[in-house]
Structures are given as C-alpha cells and as structure tokens.
Known about the structure:
Helix 4 (105-130) packs parallel to helix 6. It contains nine helices and seven strands, in the order βαβαβαβαβααβαααβ. It is 45% helix and 15% strand. The longest helix is centred in the middle third of the chain and has 26 residues, at 105-130. The chain is of the alpha/beta class. A seven-stranded parallel sheet has the order 3-2-1-4-5-6-7, sandwiched between helices. It has one domain (7-247): 3-Layer(aba) Sandwich (Rossmann fold), CATH 3.40.50. Bound molecules: NADP nicotinamide-adenine-dinucleotide phosphate. The site of NADP nicotinamide-adenine-dinucleotide phosphate has 30 residues, from helix 1, strand 2 and helix 7.
Amino acid sequence: MSAAKKVLLVTGGSRGIGAAICRLGAASGYRVAVNYASNQAAADAVVAGIEAASGEAIAVRGDVGKEADVVAMFAAVDRAFGRLDAFVNNAGIVDVKARVDEMSAERVERMMRINVTGSFLCAREAVKRMSTRHGGKGGAIVNISSAAARLGAPGEYVDYAASKGAIDTMTVGLAREVVSEGIRVNAVSPGITETEIHASGGQPDRVARMQDMLPMKRAGTADEVAHAVLYLLSDEASYTTGAILNVSGGR
Ligand code: NAP
C-alpha cells in the first residue's frame, strides 16, 4: 500500500458509530487505525472487513481514560503508518439511568475521565502530530458530541450530557486555537443512534421505547453519522471549522 495514503485514527473504532466511521474511512481511501478498549475480537472484525474490501487497517488497544494508553496508542499509529491526517474522538460511555441526586463522585469522575479528559488527551496528541507549529502538515479532527448536550438528559444521565457539553466547548475553543496551524476541528452531534451503547447503559430497549417520540419516528444509523464525519474530515469541508453538525433527525 502507498505510504502517501492518508491515515485516520478513530477511538472506539471497534463497534457502533466508530466502526462505521472506520469502514467508511477505509472506503474513502484512508489507512485506518481502529482503537478499542477491551473487545479485541470486535476490533479485529472491523480490520478484517476493511482488508476484505482491499483496504488497510490495524487494531490498536488503549483506554482513552488512561494517559499512558493514549500516548502508547498514538505511538503505535506512528510506528505502523508514519503519519496522521485525520483523527476522530469517538470513544465515549454512558452509565445506568440515574438522577443527579443519586450520583456518586466515582460515577461522575469516570464519566468525565473517559468522555472529557480522554478527548482532551487524544486531541493533544493529534495536534502535536498535525500542527504546523510542531512541524506537522495539518489535518482534521472530528469530535463526537451528542444531542444530549442540548437536551440535558434529565432523569437519565445529566453527567453524560454535561460531558458532551464540554466536548462542544472544546471543539469551538480548539478550532480557534489551531486554525492558523493547518488543523480544522469540528463536532458531529448525533441524536439517538442504533448501537450497543444503550444496552451498556442498562437500557437495551431504549431505541424501541423512544422511536415514536422522535421527529422521524426512528433512530439514526451509525452509517448516517459516519457520512457526516467523513464529510467534515474531507477537503470538501475546507472552510468549515468550529462547527457542531447535528445529525439528530430534527430532534
Ligand atoms: P458503543 O456502540 O457503545 O461503542 C463504544 C466504542 O467505544 C467501542 O468501540 C468501545 O470499545 C469504545 N470504548 C469505550 N470506552 C472506551 C475507552 N475508555 N477507551 C477507548 N475506547 C473505548 O457506542 P456508540 O453508540 O457507537 O457511541 C460512540 C460515540 O457516539 C460516543 O462518544 C457516544 O457518546 C456518541 N453518541 C452515541 C449516541 C447513540 O445513541 N448511540 C448518540 C449520541 C452520541 P470496546 O468494545 O473495546 O469497549
């Protein structure tokens, strides 16, 4: 494969929205690094699918909530591909349904460590490699936010919603910080999307339960989110930075 092919790293690229971004990224011509936290079989399956379609991909383990893992993950991509052109801060968690007056410090700290601190640390490593200030050739970053940042997720997970509010603000601030260094930073803000995240938060029936209340009477698909991400990463979005694109079916 050509060393000139652009390289895309997606955190949480092994399942759900991240996996769709990895597959569409490979189909769009990127060499892809598929990050995962613990489910290696899922990451390997995404890599195998990309290779079966004549693409190039690697799986890279790393918990974005651990700084040493983040540093090691980016170093592994350096070793494998020798460049980084596009980065997606996608890894994120929800927790079980709870009111704020029921939340422990441990819960809120874990939410913020993975969703917020993890995204900051990954953005730091991406900027160090892409920024012309650091000798890089520029690049594009997309952060995955959530409609919850606007809606607040009352009675469900306000901690998660607040973590995504932080992602929106980081997107605007980082975009302005690195705009003159060849890097564009944008966010995609999905509404309810059909993935396993709802089951991991103890609500496997969440999509079925809520779809009649959604404007389009259905949840979004991971592919519908991935198309928006690939657009923002592409040169077609060359004058777009600091934008937060709702992919939430009118919600
Ligand atoms: P998902 O199906 O639960 O997949 C989560 C992915 O993230 C998996 O690949 C998982 O890897 C990885 N991951 C989890 N914790 C990690 C960590 N600490 N470090 C590295 N990777 C980690 O989730 P999803 O629904 O695709 O969500 C992806 C993003 O979209 C999240 O930021 C989420 O908040 C956002 N979002 C989702 C929805 C929705 O309705 N689905 C709506 C709005 C926003 P392992 O399998 O190895 O754990």
